[in-house]
Amino acid sequence: SYRNLLNKVEGIPATEDVGLQTVNELGEVLREANNLDTEWKIDDRVQYADETLLDCLVLSSASSVLKKCIEAVDVFTSTYEQSEFTNRIIQRIKAEDSEEFEPDNLLKLLEDARNIIPQVPD
User: Fold this and answer.
1) How many Å apart are CA 40 and CA 46, to the nearest integer?
2) Which residue among 20, 48, 84, 112 is the one 20 to 30 A from 36 at the CA level?
3) Which domain of life is it from (predicted)?
4) What is the span of the domain harbouring residue 45?
């Protein structure tokens, strides 16, 4: 029910330490709210206005927490180490029986690239 979802959102710690775990929790709450939303016809919503109000409260509360998550991310202080990123890719695609990176190993990235790039309809 929406009451349970509202309790979940309010139970998410509203501290300065918001991160990916918080965003994942919010995502789950919003998916559940969306599932509940699709179960109700518009005629039923008029009959049960309190559920509609709770739906709005869930979305509003989740938005407030999500806003805190976004504000907590400072892209100017986040570090990005190119060498670390490159080394992780090399470790992932190099042959298991070889310590050396072979150029042909780059072909292993093609399947991932196909999944990342959206399919464009004809």
Assistant:
1) 10
2) 20
3) Eukaryota
4) 2-72
Q: How far is CA 62 from CA 32, 72, 94, in A?
A: 12, 15, 42
Q: Please identify which residue in the block is written with the tokens 């789950």.
A: 28
Q: Give pLDDT tens digits for 34-65.
A: 888 888 777 777 777 787 888 888 888 888 88
Provide the 8-state DSSP code for 119.
P
The one-letter code for the residue type at 59 is L
**pTM, rounded to two decimals:** 0.54
Are 11 and 39 part of one and the same domain?
Answer: yes
